[in-house]
Amino acid sequence: MKKLLLATTFLALASTSFAATTGSLLLQGTVAQKISLVVTSQSIASTLDLSTSQTDLVVASVNEQSNSKTGYKMTISSANLSKIKRTDGADVLSYTMKYNGSAVGLSSAGGTTITNSAGTSVNLNKSVSISYTGVAAESMVEGTYADTVTFTIAAN
Fold first, then answer.
1. Rounded to a whole number, what is the distance in angstroms from the first to the last CA of the chain?
2. pTM for the whole thing?
3. Which of 41, 43, 127, 156 is a good FRET partner for 145, with 20 to 30 A between their CA atoms?
């Protein structure tokens, strides 16, 4: 019995003498990259009065979201290179566009790229406006005139 008590005491002392006095716990999580946009058109965008001149007419808003650590870029392009074109003909009405108050060049196939190099979380609403000189209805061929503007967002 003495041997058993001595062995038990020795094991208890041995285990406490090898126990750690500090420990650590790693807490870790991952945030996925999110880059998105939502284009919300105003009702006026699809009912433009082409016979009346417009200056900075707000036709849409764009919500940009990004949490990219390298920032992001926005590309804006026009299918008809900044012209509202008759859908069944070649007649056009030229216009200019502003994105958040700054002029956007749409007259080339590549459109305009706007770079945001800040590596921060962004959730912004920006306005889209157009300007054009109206043309009297009797000076234009009847029909529907349209252009499609494409907004693309991507990480830098």
1. 76
2. 0.82
3. 127
Mean pLDDT, the chain, rounded, equals 91
Distance, in Å, from the CA atom of 109 to the CA atom of 107, rounded to the nearest integer, reads 7
Tell which wins on pLDDT, 18 or 130: 130
Q: Where does 55-155 sit in CATH, by number?
A: 2.60.40
Question: In the chain, where are the structural domains located?
Answer: 55-155
Instruction: List the beta bridge partners of residue 38.
Output: 63
Output the pLDDT for position 79. 97
CA angle 97, 101, 103 (to 5 degrees): 40
Alpha-carbon dihedral angle through residues 146, 147, 150, 151, given to the nearest 10 degrees: -80
Enter the tokens of residue 59.
């036709």
Give yes or no for a contact between 60 and 128, defined as CB atoms under 8 angstroms apart: yes
In whole angstroms, give the CA distance from residue 46 to residue 99: 18
Question: Which pair of tokens denotes residue 37?
Answer: 């946009």
The mean per-residue pLDDT over the stretch 3-30 comes to 70
The DSSP output letter for 11 is H
Residue where the block lists tokens 């306005």: 127
